[in-house]
Specification:
Elements lengths: L2 E7 L3 E8 L4 E9 L4 H12 L5 E8 L3 E2 L4 E4 L6 E3 L1 H9 L3 E5 H12 L8 E6 L3 E7 L2 E2 L31 H5 L3 H11 L17 H7 L4 H25 L3 E5 L1 H4 L2 H11 L10 E4 L6 H6 L5
Parallel strand pairs: 1-4, 4-8, 9-12, 12-13
Antiparallel strand pairs: 1-2, 2-3, 5-6, 6-7, 9-10, 10-11
Helix pairs in contact: 5-7, 7-9
The structure holds zinc ion.
Zinc ion (ZN) binds next to loops.
Length: 302
């Protein structure tokens, strides 16, 4: 096979790349904010793919919930797409084979084939973006689940007594505390409870973006305390993964981690052993960075 198209759908950006299966290279040809209704999204995706010539397949990676084997994106709370039969739509338009996988599955496959997890048979890809997801390979095989949704670790309950609400409506879920969408809510919660009577530069920030919290932590004690709490919760979540899956390796990715490598990675790598009964896995930042999921989307063709 020669050239294939990679469609990596994210809550923030749609990234379309052209990959060469011979040289195993991948070049991004389109990146823009993801349009958030089915009709607008399809128009956006078609206009980018229509410009590409002589490709022999398309791989799509998307946040869930999916029915991956039927090729349908059922819904994504953070994305706005619903019941989108994306595989059939792309096959009908471009007359090439199309595969759909979850973003986390694509991520772990890319890390396994091209990244830090080469030759590793027990590994996970853990991504911190708008939500938290993990893709898992056990005994050299991908863990998929009945509809391809075995990646929703972000909704694992970390604190059963917490009032901090997740985007899904549940309370105390991992991503409610430490994902891109959770950090602002959790930081505000801590400012109003644990740090109620403490001064902090974060109090004057109107829109608390995760980056504002990590940046402030370099000189503000309260922000540093919040970042430490984020680190403790992430170590706990990764520890749960280790206890469930008995992993050799976790590769960490997603915008929140890639832009704050030390602050996100170090507490997990250092403290995961406190929260698992198993021998803790090695924890590293993804070497492929923002290209992990685009590579994984077309891994079936490579
Ligand atoms: Zn949730």
């Amino acid at each position: 096979m020669g050239k294939v198209v990679s469609v990596a759908i994210g809550e923030a950006n749609l990234r379309i790349s052209l990959a060469d299966t011979g040289t195993q290279s991948l070049n991004t040809v389109y990146k823009a904010a993801t349009h958030k209704t089915n009709a607008k999204f399809l128009k956006q995706m078609f206009s980018a793919i229509d410009k590409l010539k002589n490709f022999e397949g398309i791989g799509v990676a998307s946040p869930g919930l999916l029915n991956a084997s039927k090729g349908i994106i059922h819904k994504s709370r953070n994305l706005g797409l619903a019941d989108l039969n994306i595989v059939k739509i792309l096959e009908d338009r471009y007359k090439v084979p199309v595969f759909l996988s979850s973003r986390a599955v694509a991520g772990v496959l890319a890390e396994h084939l091209f990244g830090s997890g080469k030759d590793c048979r027990q590994m996970a890809f853990l991504t911190f973006s708008t939500g938290i997801e993990c893709g898992v390979i056990l005994n050299g095989r991908l863990l998929l689940g009945k509809e391809g949704n075995a990646h929703e670790i972000g909704h694992a309950i970390i604190d059963a007594n917490s009032s901090v609400q997740c985007g899904c409506g549940g309370k105390g879920h991992w991503e409610a505390f430490t994902s891109g969408s959770g950090i602002p809510v959790f930081a505000r919660y801590l400012l109003n409870t644990k740090y109620e009577d403490k001064k902090s530069s974060l109090r004057s920030v109107k829109e608390l973006h995760p980056q504002a919290v990590f940046d402030a932590a370099k000189k503000d004690k309260v922000a540093a305390g919040i970042v430490a709490e984020i680190g403790r919760i992430n170590a706990m979540g990764a520890g749960n993964m280790s206890s469930i899956f008995d992993l050799e390796l976790i590769t960490v990715s997603g915008g929140v981690a890639l832009y704050n490598k030390d602050a996100v990675l170090n507490p997990i790598a250092k403290d995961i052993g406190k929260y698992t009964v198993n021998k803790p896995p090695k924890v590293v930042i993804s070497k492929l960075g923002e290209k992990t999921v685009p590579y994984g989307a077309v891994a079936d063709f490579m």
